[in-house]
Automatic annotation (TrEMBL):
Cited InterPro entries: Cell_Wall_Dynamics_Protein, Lysozyme-like_dom_sf
Lineage: Bacteria, Pseudomonadati, Pseudomonadota, Betaproteobacteria, Candidatus Accumulibacter
Gene3D superfamilies registered for this protein in UniProt: 1.10.530.10
Protein name: Lytic enzyme
Amino acid sequence: MTVSLSLAQVLHLAPNARSSYRDAFQNGQAVLDEHRISATPLRLAHFMAQVLHESGGLAIQFENLNYSPERLAKVWPSRFQPKGPLNPAAYAHNPQKLANEVYGARMGNSAPDDGFTYRGRGLLQLTGRNSYQEATTILRRENPTAPDFVAAPDDVIGAQWCLAVAASEWVAKGCNPLADQDDIRRITRAINGGLIGLAERLEWTKRTKAVWK
């Protein structure tokens, strides 16, 4: 028996949800069922907690790269002065330049503007050309009509595909078994690559567990 998710539950947790995200969840039960995320309350609670954290309560579509000089030195200490070589003032409040610096020449990004083009997007903040290509490959196995997210990256945030992209990423990173173990640290590492925002993710998980008991 699958666990149901209603738009009312989603809006209880995220009253400021973007319209595309609202539409996706309103019509998203089949996606959750297909990826076995709705197989148990624990899986659904962990999935939603990570989604809610990564998307800022379903209010963020694009990664916010509008940083002050002081914040740049804290987020990327190895890159920006005083510890790193780069002058943070030259990148502050310039998301495109910053993205191309910190994401360029890695994660499959090779063209000069790839870092910005394939910056974080969507419910789990898909980042890097390789991730957009992987999402395309996975979803086209499930649905041959899925778009090429490398060619059309903004489709990652659209109502038709945003939930499917997040669900496929969740499954590809092995998060269903980790959710079965209630292992938020390993889930966070799988999604984030580290433990950034763990305290906030823990708080979201408490809230989602209260909804999907």
